[in-house]
Write a structure and sequence with these properties.
Rossmann fold, 9 helices, 8-stranded mixed β-sheet, 40% helix
């Protein structure tokens, strides 16, 4: 079987998005999450390329994509729509598996709900969770602000590289507030998806600290998935002993789960 290799750029909405394609087998489109780049996902994509023709990209303001003033959920979803449109224009041999991490999972759920024939299967890695309670409460805002100030400061070392991140702390906060709102109504999106769905979730998304806040976040995270499975019992769920960074720390486990459910290559 021939290994496909391609790199190209998508220009839309004032941003330029680099797309990478490499691998063999049926197509798989991987959408990164917030503050995650193609470079960060190198181990996962390398493993998946053994069985899939993997296409991935950098969201606006991440990695080698250009920055913008607009970092809303709608803007990130439009990046994915533009990449998928370009892939259709170039011609995919079959409908792809759609994989998304965190924010990327929310993006592909909304995309699949709007484009019912776009993908053969959805794999949602620690995202698109119909949370019963919001994460970003007023009481927790100072804690989150401190967390992301530290993260943004740490990313300064990656400026100008494939791991750079251009969002400010305020933009990250605003986006997470928006995500809370979107996830409160995401069950409606699932009702419009007929493709098989697999969830790969972290058992301790906020870490294993005994701090009350971490325990509350972890319980809320699990409760959201339990709520989803009650509504859609056909959704398969795998829990990994990991936090929200599982896409980086548990790449072999995630690739193995995706590989187990692959369809025969065309």
């Amino acid at each position: 079987m021939t290994t496909k290799t391609d790199q190209f750029r998508v220009h839309h909405d004032g941003v330029t998005i680099p797309v990478s394609r490499r691998g063999r087998g049926r197509p798989l489109v991987l959408c990164p999450g917030l503050l995650t780049t193609q470079a960060d996902l190198r181990e996962l994509t390398h493993l998946l390329r053994r069985d899939f023709d993997v296409i991935t990209f950098d969201l606006r303001g991440h990695g080698l994509s250009t920055g913008t003033a607009q970092y809303s959920f709608t803007a990130f979803r439009s990046d994915f729509v533009a990449v998928m449109a370009e892939l259709r224009r170039r011609g995919l041999p079959s409908a792809p598996v759609l994989v998304g991490h965190s924010l990327g999972a929310d993006v592909i759920v909304h995309y699949a709900a709007e484009h019912p024939d776009a993908g053969t299967e959805l794999v949602l890695v620690d995202g698109a969770n119909p949370l019963p309670e919001p994460f970003l409460t007023e009481a927790d805002l100072p804690w989150f602000r401190g967390l992301w100030e530290e993260l943004v400061s740490g990313h300064e070392a990656y400026r100008g590289t494939a791991r750079q991140m251009l969002l400010t702390v305020e933009q990250i906060l605003d986006l997470n507030v928006e995500l809370d709102r979107i996830r409160s109504g995401i069950l409606d999106q699932y009702q419009n998806i007929d493709s098989p769905i697999r969830m790969i979730m972290s058992a301790s998304m906020a870490g294993s600290s005994e701090e009350e806040r971490a325990g509350r976040y972890n319980r809320n995270w699990r409760a959201g998935i339990e709520r989803l499975v009650r509504e859609r019992p056909n959704i398969a769920t795998s829990w990994l002993d990991a936090d929200h960074g599982l896409v980086l720390t548990h790449a072999p486990h995630i690739a193995g789960i995706i590989r187990e459910r692959r369809h025969p290559a065309c």
